[in-house]
Design brief:
The chain is an alpha+beta fold. The protein contains 3 helices and 7 strands, in the order βαβββαβαββ. The chain has a single domain, classed as Gcn5-related N-acetyltransferase (GNAT) (Aminopeptidase), CATH 3.40.630. Helices cover 24% and strands 26% of the residues.
Length: 176
């Protein structure tokens, strides 16, 4: 399957919104990441997600990063995946790890997280990854609901927060 240069057609619930691939270091990606970090800090009462991330982790062919923009070019949502293979943090060969899924409060309810998730799954599958994995937390019930309704199942904990009580990990096979 050929990897996409994603320029999604607007959906009925989010007319005029497009998904664009960007680098993790793009100013809009940085701004949205800052916003999600503030939200994590509020929800968990700490400094936010301190998972070490190198912006190049999201560069093709080892990853992909998307931003949803409205018709005026305002960034509304984001998400990416990065390659993971078997290591001492509990990943398996062929894993694609979902990172930095976030929808701004004013854009919630438009289906943007689901659109980004589907596009990232398609891209990871096209890149030859066999499983999408993610780490979230108990204080993000809307994220957990999205992942469960999208076919993700709880799995053995992995990653930076694998020893944290509030951490939850999920996985979904990427059949192609």
């Amino acid at each position: 399957m050929e990897r996409m240069s994603i320029q999604s057609a607007p959906s009925a619930s989010a007319a005029g919104i497009t998904l664009r691939p960007v680098s993790f270091g793009h100013p809009d990606a940085v701004a949205l990441n800052d916003r999600v970090q503030l939200e994590y800090a509020e929800r968990y009462g700490d400094e936010g997600d301190v998972t070490p991330l190198d912006p190049t982790m999201f560069d093709a062919p080892s990853g992909h990063y998307l931003i949803a923009y409205d018709a005026a070019g305002v960034p509304l949502a984001t998400g990416g995946w990065r390659t993971q293979d078997k290591n001492d943090e509990g990943y398996a060969d062929g894993d694609a790890e979902l990172k930095r899924m976030y929808v701004t409060p004013e854009a919630r309810g438009l289906g943007l997280a689901r659109r980004i998730l589907a596009a990232l799954e398609d891209d990871a599958r096209a890149a030859g990854r066999t499983r999408m994995v993610l780490e979230t937390g108990t204080k993000q019930p809307e994220a957990i609901a999205l992942y469960l309704s999208s076919g993700y199942e709880p799995c053995t904990k992995f990653g930076h927060y694998r020893f944290e009580e509030l951490s939850r990990c999920y996985a979904k096979p990427l059949k192609g």
